[in-house]
Amino acid sequence: MEQDIQEVLYSREYLAGVVSELGRRISEDYKDKNLLMVSVLKGSVVFMADLMRAVTIPCAIDFMSVSSYGSGTKTSGVVKIIKDLDVNLEGKDLLLVEDILDSGMTLHYIRDMLRQRNPSSIKLCTLFDKPERRQADVTADYFGAVVPDAFIVGYGLDYDEKYRNLPYVGILKPSVYEK
Ligand code: IMP
Ligand code: MG
User: Alpha-carbon Rg of the chain, whole angstroms?
Assistant: First the structure.
């Protein structure tokens, strides 16, 4: 795996600091609310696992799975629900937890769909944001870092289902996907 990484962008230690600060802010903002953290599988699973432990107030969690990417590096624009939520959203303050906000098509679709189920509120928390590539009208309420327009992997982020288990985030060598 290591030999496919062009450059390490964020070390394990740096990510730990970013996540702890996000957890602190979320705990403060949601202290009088009914927080439900929803992780969008699979990319956000590592972030979610760390973020929920950085949250110091009571919260519930749930997962949903959508597909929009196939094995390429650009969004297809088509979002399909693979696994829906288990819980009812009424009265919940929903925080959608994503790995990276790129074109925004995925989160735009999910947010609109979940809004129809009447949660008390709905906000987005993404670890990484690529604002230059935004196509849909979505902004993150919480984000960890703005990343350059390069394809990054690690800490949950994949290319063709690989590299999710790297403990840091790095830029993937273009030669890996330009084959
Ligand atoms: P969007 O709908 O274009 O915002 O796509 C968001 C999804 O695309 C993320 O949840 C990731 O799964 C994937 N994605 C976008 N950019 C990257 C990247 O640089 N590395 C890995 N996955 C990415
Ligand atoms: Mg992915």
Answer: 16
Of 60, 65, 61, 77, residue with least CA distance to 40: 65
Do residues 35 and 61 make contact, with C-beta atoms less than 8 angstroms apart? no
Strand pairing report for 121-129 and 93-101: parallel
pTM above 0.70, yes or no: yes
- pLDDT tens figures, 106-119: 899 999 999 999 99
Does the C-beta of 138 come closer than 6 Å to ligand 1? no
pLDDT grade, residue 79 (50/70/90)?
Answer: confident
Reply yes or no on whether 29 is catalytic.
no
What lies within 8 Å, CB to CB, of 2 at 6+ separation is: none
Rounded distance between C-alpha atoms, residue 164 and residue 153, angstroms: 7
